[in-house]
Structure prediction request, 321 residues.
Amino acid sequence: MPRKSVMIIKHGYSETCDHHVSPIVSFGDVFRCTCLLEDYKGYHVTWITAPDAFDLLTKNHLIDRLILAETPEALPENVGDIPYDIVINLEKQRDWCEFATRLNAQQKYGFKDWSGTGNDCFYPESAAALSKGLERDGFHALQQTLFETIGRQWHGQRYVLGYQPRVQEIYDIGLNYHVGPKWPAKAWPLEHWKQLDRYLGGYAVSWQQSLNSVRHYIDWLAACRMIITTDSLGLHLALGLRKKVIALFGPTSAEQVYMYNCGTKITPLCDRPCMPCFQKKCAYDECCMSHISVEQVLQTVHELMPARSLLPIPDPATLSV
Prediction:
C-alpha cells in the first residue's frame, strides 16, 4: 500500500506570524516548522524551500524529497502534476499561493490568497489559527499555532534537525551574540556581551563562530554546554540540540518561543507599552534590549550551570554600560 503524501512549502521569506515578506530568508522560522514533521512520520514528505535554507533541512530523516526553488518556475516539471494527500503552504508570496492553489490535494492548509487580510487569505481549516497568530491576539508558542493551522494538536513535538554534529563539548558557555540583518532590533548591545564575558571567570567561554556556514555553526553550538542568545536561529538550533539556553527577548514575543525545559527567558527591566513591538528598528533612542542587565544574565548562569570558580556577581551600579 503506497504511503500518503504531504507537501510543505516553507522558504522563510515570510515568517508564519508576521505580515511582512522579505528578500532575506528567516532561517529560524524555517527550522521552527520542522516540528510538524513529527506528525507526518510514515508519510512521503516533499518540502520546498529556498536554496539558502538547504543546510537546515538536508539529511532530515523525515523529509523524503527536498526541493530548492526560489519561484514555482524553478521547480522540476513533475512537482505540480503529482497528486498529494496534504499540501501545507506556509508562505505568503503571490506566486507560491497561486502554485499551492493549483495543486491536486485532498486537504490544503496554510496561506491561500496573498491579496487580502481577512479569512479568505487562508484555507478554511487554517483561518482561525493563522488570523489569530498574525493579529497577535494573545501570545502562545508558535508550535501551537502551526499545529492548529493543520488541524492537529501540539503535544510538545520537537524540532527535527537533519545534520547531526559529531563534536565534543569543549566550551562551558557559547555567546551567540550576532543577529542577522532582518531583525537588527533583537541585538543585545555589544558592550553588554563584553562585560558578561569579563565576569564569566571560571567558565570556558566561546564567542559565536562560523557565521558563514550553517553546518559549522551547528558544530559550534554542539560544542557548548550552554548557549546565551538573542531570539535568533541559534536559539532554536540550541533547543534542537537540547542545550541549556538563556534566551534574551525584547522586540519579539518571549511567549511565542517554547523552551522544551531547556532553559530560561529574560526580558528587559523597563516598562514600555510597545513591547513586544515586532519592529526591526527601535523607536526609542535606547533600545529595550539595552535594559536587559548583565547582572540578570549572570544570575541566571549561576542558577543553571554547576558551580565554577566565578567572579562575584557585580553590583549593577558598578557596571558602566
